[in-house]
Amino acid sequence: MSKSYNVAILGATGAVGTELLELLANRNFPLANLKLLASERSVGRTLSFKGENLPIEAVSDRAFDGIDIVLASAGGSTSKTWAGKAVEKGAVVIDNSSAFRMKEEVPLVVPEVNPQAAAHHQGIIANPNCTTILLSVALWPLHQVRPIKRLVVATYQSASGAGAKAMAEVQTQSSAILSGQPAVAEVLPYPLAFNLFPHNSPLNEQGYCEEEMKMVNETRKIFGTQQIRITATCVRVPVLRAHSEAVNIEFEVPFSPEEAREIISRSPGVKLIEDWQANHFPMPIEATGRDEVLVGRIRQDISHPCGLELWLCGDQIRKGAALNAVQIAELLVEKNLLKPLAISH
Amino acid sequence: MSKSYNVAILGATGAVGTELLELLANRNFPLANLKLLASERSVGRTLSFKGENLPIEAVSDRAFDGIDIVLASAGGSTSKTWAGKAVEKGAVVIDNSSAFRMKEEVPLVVPEVNPQAAAHHQGIIANPNCTTILLSVALWPLHQVRPIKRLVVATYQSASGAGAKAMAEVQTQSSAILSGQPAVAEVLPYPLAFNLFPHNSPLNEQGYCEEEMKMVNETRKIFGTQQIRITATCVRVPVLRAHSEAVNIEFEVPFSPEEAREIISRSPGVKLIEDWQANHFPMPIEATGRDEVLVGRIRQDISHPCGLELWLCGDQIRKGAALNAVQIAELLVEKNLLKPLAISH
């Protein structure tokens, strides 16, 4: 009989938490028990899992007793408070927040790219930022064939990146505008319906926002090189749950679009969507609910002999967050990477 | 008494035509008479201009009798049919279609950039494509100080670029989706509400769409140099009438963001919108109805020593089309450029 594991979801009620539940059920993760943890105000609610109603429990030290894997998606400060305690209890924490991503001792893992990094974990493994995951899955197969020198990225990020409330807000705003009422912005800083704006994360002194610097720093860490030069402009758009990215890639040497296309076609986690005749390429509504990052419009950059242009869309909640976390959990199970730290229980 | 002119609008009923009427009224263009021309099916309708109801007349050879300036915005095939005939009658045609833009003998004019080009017209002056106009106005002042070497642009283009019907369609689709109905795409090839897709203009053999090649070719023609290397990814987004562009600029030599900011601040047709404290930068809803191209997020490109990143928004119908055409008409009047071809009438 194969082993099964006790899993806790920290932040079970959010957009990513909901997706984690669905993925654990649909992918038949070898679960012994599933525990749902959230803040005090969600206690008393239940969430459906495989036909059962699971109660939401308040997070506490004792909540992690006997847990093998924590899937944390409750924001950075919650992760900072609880991840260490969960690890002390013998759990491995797969953390979706940005709290630990750039810590040297914490592996930052995209299973299609750097599964080997997971082996060195000391209890915490970080799940990268959504835009970084999507970009990494699409570019890694190309980078392995000929190294990437520089990236210029522009993103088209859905409301889901700011959570379920932002997704609801853009719909409420759209309804308001369509009936001649003003759009009220409460979750996001500006109206997003029929509008867009540069990503509203804090700006550094150079004028880059946090979201952009995540793409720069996390991509380098995942790819295991500080040599790739990266610049990004991150923009929030009125789309519900899939991100898109226009990616200009400069390689060290020329890379033909035909070869890039062939490589993408046979790489894991990506799907080439290119119907040149019908002018049909990846779109957020088609990426929604899918596991793969959709890639298309691969073409020789007419402005640079070593350049390729590429367009991608991916489900922000799924591969951009929940799916990647579950894949890391599956990797831990498959490679027996829970053991070294497992305290008997 | 200052001279006044007979103006005809060809394509008066479209989104750009409507804006042309408003601009001619509000800017107090020295009009003698205004004639509204459209296809047969609009004949019988009237449009309001300065409190008067002007009839729409069918376009014909004789319709151009006595006309000094034709503002044409009825699509490429209509322009190809009628522009020559209007010129034969002594009019100067300012054409908003792409029909004549790349013809060597036709000036392609953005008044803030290359007003001198208008002097060499032979009866037709072309109004550039919307994304090109917005980009040109923002970048020209920088290019004059230190030459631009390469541009990597990603656009966020509103529905208005596909006309008034596309603007209505994205709203109808939004209503449908919000009430749980499917989004029907009739004007645009795919649903645009809560979605986006690469620009649906025809693709060339290299995989660039027409919209992208317009940016490449028209920008070079307006700037008077074939040396600038340009690549672009054009994307349609669910915004009503202002386009945005994420622009990565590589100069021949370094260009400090402070200097760029100072130059933009004092240049015509652009407005710097940068509140770093409040994370407030140009947005389509704020660019809507404004004459200026809003520019912000000017920052040193951390991936290139000679790079700057810049973000812009501009009203697609106004500066991206109608306003630029009216400014060209004003330039013709001001510089007395109607005369050489004017046949007495």
From TrEMBL, chains A, B:
Gene Ontology BP term (one): lysine biosynthetic process via diaminopimelate
UniProt similarity note: Belongs to the aspartate-semialdehyde dehydrogenase family.
Chain's role: Catalyzes the NADPH-dependent formation of L-aspartate-semialdehyde (L-ASA) by the reductive dephosphorylation of L-aspartyl-4-phosphate.
Reactions catalysed, as given in the entry: L-aspartate 4-semialdehyde + phosphate + NADP(+) = 4-phospho-L-aspartate + NADPH + H(+)
Gene3D superfamilies recorded: Dihydrodipicolinate Reductase, domain 2 (3.30.360.10), NAD(P)-binding Rossmann-like Domain (3.40.50.720)
Enzymatic class: oxidoreductase
Record text on subunit structure and interactions: Homodimer.
CDD domains tied to this protein: ASADH_C_bac_euk_like, VcASADH2_like_N
Annotated organism of origin: Tolypothrix tenuis PCC 7101
Residues that, per the record, bind substrate: 157, 210, 236
Keyword annotations of the record: Amino-acid biosynthesis, Diaminopimelate biosynthesis, Lysine biosynthesis, Methionine biosynthesis, NADP, Oxidoreductase, Threonine biosynthesis
Highest taxon of source: Bacteria
Semialdehyde dehydrogenase NAD-binding domain residues: 6-121
Pathway entry: Amino-acid biosynthesis; L-methionine biosynthesis via de novo pathway; L-homoserine from L-aspartate: step 2/3; Amino-acid biosynthesis; L-threonine biosynthesis; L-threonine from L-aspartate: step 2/5; Amino-acid biosynthesis; L-lysine biosynthesis via DAP pathway; (S)-tetrahydrodipicolinate from L-aspartate: step 2/4
Active site: 130 (acyl-thioester intermediate), 243 (proton acceptor)
Binding residue positions for phosphate: 101
Protein name in UniProt: Aspartate-semialdehyde dehydrogenase
Annotated binding of NADP(+), by residue: 13-16, 41-42, 160-161, 316
GO terms of molecular function: aspartate-semialdehyde dehydrogenase activity; NAD binding; NADP binding; protein dimerization activity
Alphabetized HAMAP family for the sequence: ASADH
EC number per UniProt: 1.2.1.11
